[in-house]
Specification:
7-stranded parallel β-sheet, binds zinc ion, Rossmann fold, 7 strands, single chain, alpha/beta, globular
Amino acid sequence: MILQMIRAKRRQVLIDINTQRDFLLADGEACIRNHRRVLAHIRRMTAWARHRGIPIISTCEVHPDEETHNGDPRYCIDGTPGQKKISYTLMENRIVFPADGNTDLPRDMLRRYQQVVLHKRCPDPFDEPRIDRLLSEITAAEFVLIGACAETAVKAAALGLLQRNKRVAVIVDAVGYHDNREAKMAFRKMEAKGARLIETRRLAGASHLRQVGVCHCEACQRTAQRVVVGVPQDN
Ligand SMILES: [Zn+2]
């Protein structure tokens, strides 16, 4: 049983949602607001998980590349660079699952891999049978959520976990959004249902991390330059 993957006493699991190029880079098809700040915090949180050996469950959207798309999103298209995860959100020791409707999961998966990457064809992870099974069966002291977007996929993940009686912490400054008003409502709803809303520094400590890498927009590049004369980064 995968229940054994994670013992009840195990501390946290990082739930890394849609940290893909289309959502997080300035030239992505569905770039969030304030991507520079969010990227820095996402990088910080993944470094935190890496260094502490905290398991990471990553969900990524993937949409078909079809000539006639019947309302399918035009971002995170299968086979495009925009669908790829941001490089520093990938651990070396990982296992990847396609979105195929199956529910099979290897035994002792989280003992053998630091990261499980699961693809989904929709924002809500619980609409994918395999992710539903994994998130429903897994136990941990707390599920720590980062990624995009607050008003869609992050909200769906948080509410689904809470419904399944899991403890949830949402790292508000490591979560991106498109619509400020809707994001505020989403955060309020997650909190009302029992999620803890906290900032990156609460878990990962105060950070000198300013370098966000990967994005080549002016704002991100300006920040990177400042880092050259600043404090060394954590990795
Ligand atoms: Zn940028």
